[in-house]
Amino acid sequence: MPVTSISLTVVILSLLGIPLTIGFISKVYLLKAVFSHGNWPILFIIVLTSFLALGYAWQMIENIWMKQSDDNTTLTIKDDPKIYIPLVVLAVFNIIFGIYAYPIVNSAFNASAAIFWKAL
User: 96-101 contacts: CB < 8 A, separation 24 or more?
Assistant: First the structure.
């Protein structure tokens, strides 16, 4: 279960927009667009949803890492190690693209320019 716990924690931190995750990059570009166009109701929505996400995400992180079991029973589950591959890949790419986001951001800008500028 530690692999699942660590992967879920990385994804939750990305959802919250913590730096060094890809979620931080997306929030930065959202806020950049809001400030450049002055669309202040969208800023309110971004801040509100971030705090709502923090509320339920903190409960999950607290249950995973800080809460001790009430009983002395332990549950042993024999899982196939291949089941962890998607979780680890998601967590690792989340951090890699959070640190080095240029390829994704550049590709997204090129794609949006190709779609929207040719349509006009």
Answer: 97/22, 97/25, 98/14, 98/19, 98/20, 98/21, 98/22, 98/23, 98/24, 98/25, 99/20, 101/22, 101/25
Q: Is it the case that residue 99 has pLDDT exceeding 90?
A: yes
Average pLDDT of the segment spanning 49-62: 91
pLDDT digits (tens, 9 = 90+) for 65-96: 888 766 666 667 777 888 899 999 999 999 99
Q: What is the 3-state secondary structure (H, E, C) of the chain?
A: CHHHHHHHHHHHHHHHCCCCCHHHHHHHHHHHHHHHHCCHHHHHHHHHHHHHHHHHHHHHHHHHHHCCCCCCCCCCCCCCHHHHHHHHHHHHHHHHHHHCCHHHHHHHHHHHHHHHHHHC
Residue 25 tokens, joined: 């990059």
CA dihedral over 71, 74, 75, 80, signed as positive or negative: positive
